[in-house]
């Protein structure tokens, strides 16, 4: 498998060994995504072992998202300053160091620091992976390649909870990280041996103010929403100030980028209508998927009383189905375009979430597995086709900016989605307990929690319906002669 590349300043044809490059990137991406979700199942155990509250435990996920929210926007700039090999080695070094520290962690503070170092690796790796694949794979085969990324990005979070549950049951939570470590080392060695430099190093001028505004903006929004999803609630000064500072910084950031000759993130990517539709689809998808992936394990463990391992096992079929569907959807996208995948996908997601909103303590395991699998099939029909179609409309020089925008907004969507879902769930639980005569009765507590879960799924369904309206604006981007772009 070889790919050729031509660009404005590159009349010569460059050949890439795409298979070894893909394997290095996908292995590293898989482990990065695995350790991101594997810890979610361990949170209940960590609260007991480390003697921390749910609010404190949530910071292990929040800090990870926050680091990604701050660093991913800068990735477009880093891709122009450093070679592909340098960034790959740096990303893997951070991931290996963070994973090793997490495996050794004696305390919560130590583990939190390790998670931040891990996230630094993931923040460098995700945009690098997307950008490299966009360059080395010809446009007409891009759907299948993005489907492969989809396989990695979706199967890792799916098997993460199951493997984590098994490790917690038989060993300890430290083993979640010990297990990841050898794979990261293999990915690093493979990258050192096979990774090629696919981008040009142009070293654009670094604008410190843009970096500060971007960090304050995305960081403030992620921090504010994450805090609201915890015990603070939406009315607390911390949440209001963080979101207000974040929004103000983002407005200033946008103004600055639009007036600069060499912006940090070239927001002119938003001039391309299918890119905008793709961004909206990915944003909605990430909100739905991350809020569901947080609420469902909680429902299975607290509402149904299952162990971490069993909860993970019940969610495994859906995740594997999603992973297997991604490459198929990629090939269908190459053949038929995005519209006939994305619209039915959103209908399936909305209907699944509507059924989920009637979930009770008496709901059967089969009901949960079937609905979760249907939800995952729907997601696989939306995510990669909309994303690939959007980026296909961008000219080559905007690829780093396009991938930086998509990846940043995925992290922000994740933070917003999980925060809204948790706060809706908490509010539903509280309002139910206010109506009963004995709020301390365990039966009432479980019923209240279930009502909160139902409300969270109704929120997910509303998001899917908004996505369905946006999907009707999708048009297929046809790339002609590598440079011209047209739409039908």
How big is the Rg?
22 Å
Distance between the termini: 30 Å
What is the mean predicted local confidence, pLDDT?
80
For the largest beta-sheet, the strand count, sense and barrel status come to:
2 strands, antiparallel
pLDDT < 50 runs, ≥5 residues:
1-13, 481-488
Proportion of strand residues: under 5%
Helix-strand pattern, N to C? EEHHHHHHHHHHHHHHHEE
Describe the model.
By secondary structure, this protein is mainly alpha-helical. It has 15 helices and 4 strands. A two-stranded antiparallel ribbon has the order 1-2. A two-stranded antiparallel sheet has the order 3-4. Helix 11 runs parallel beside helix 13. The longest helix is centred in the last third of the chain and has 37 residues. The protein is globular. It starts with a strand and ends with a strand.
Notable features of this structure?
488 residues, mainly alpha, two-stranded antiparallel ribbon, two-stranded antiparallel sheet, 15 helices
Summarize the structure in short.
This protein has helices at residues 18-49, 54-71, 75-81, 84-104, 108-136, 142-170, 174-194, 208-229, 237-259, 273-303, 308-336, 339-356, 365-392, 399-435, 442-471; strands at residues 2-7, 10-17, 477-480, 484-487. It has 488 residues and is mainly α.
